[in-house]
């Protein structure tokens, strides 16, 4: 997704350069290019924010389940909070739901995803 966004921005950047060099003629075209760049940045920011929010929510859910099993070691808690990969967090969430104790969760977590 980032590659596509970068290519789109590069295309818009080239269009702006052509306009500034005199190849483009309309102010409207320049405004449209600027609007497109702003909208693209806004959309990417929104998508990134959603992904970060989902990751944080999953991490909080994992920690809530683990708290039921005992006091969570700081290193384990930090590892969970630092993870941003949604697939890994989903695996960990399932492990936390099935774990009988923190030791089992920690061992299975490291085996599955390091």
In short:
With 114 residues, the chain is mainly alpha-helical. The protein contains five helices and no strands. The chain has helices at residues 2-20, 27-67, 74-82, 86-98, 102-113.
List keywords for this structure.
5 helices, 0% strand, 114 residues, mainly alpha
What does this entry look like structurally?
- The protein is mainly alpha-helical and 114 residues long.
- It has one domain (2-113).
- It is 82% helix and 0% strand.
- The chain is built from 5 helices and no strands.
- Helix 2 runs parallel beside helix 4 and helix 4 (86-98) runs antiparallel to helix 5.
- The longest helix has 41 residues, at 27-67.
- The protein is rod-shaped and about 65 Å long.
- The chain starts with a helix and ends with a helix.
Count of discrete alpha- or pi-helical segments spanning 4 or more residues: 5
Task: Tell me roughly what share of residues is in helical segments.
Answer: over 70%
Low-confidence stretches: none
E-strand count: 0
State the secondary-structure class: mainly alpha
Please indicate the percent range of residues in DSSP E strands (runs of 2 or more).
Answer: under 5%
- Summed up, the domain count is 1
Oligomer: single chain
What spatial form do the alpha-carbon principal axes imply?
rod-shaped
For the biggest sheet, the summary is: none
Q: In sequence order, what are the helices and strands, one letter per element?
A: HHHHH
Give average pLDDT, whole number: 80
Termini, distance in Å?
25 Å
Radius of gyration: 22 Å
């Amino acid at each position: 997704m980032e590659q596509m966004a970068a290519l789109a921005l590069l295309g818009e950047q080239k269009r702006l350069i052509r306009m500034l060099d005199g190849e483009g003629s309309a102010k409207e075209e320049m405004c449209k290019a600027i609007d497109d760049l702003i909208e693209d940045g806004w959309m990417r920011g929104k998508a990134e924010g959603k992904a970060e929010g989902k990751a944080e929510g999953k991490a909080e859910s994992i920690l809530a389940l683990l708290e039921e099993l005992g006091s969570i070691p700081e290193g384990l808690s930090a590892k969970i909070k630092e993870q941003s990969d949604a697939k890994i967090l989903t695996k960990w969430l399932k492990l936390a739901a099935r774990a009988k104790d923190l030791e089992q969760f920690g061992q299975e977590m490291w085996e599955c995803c390091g």
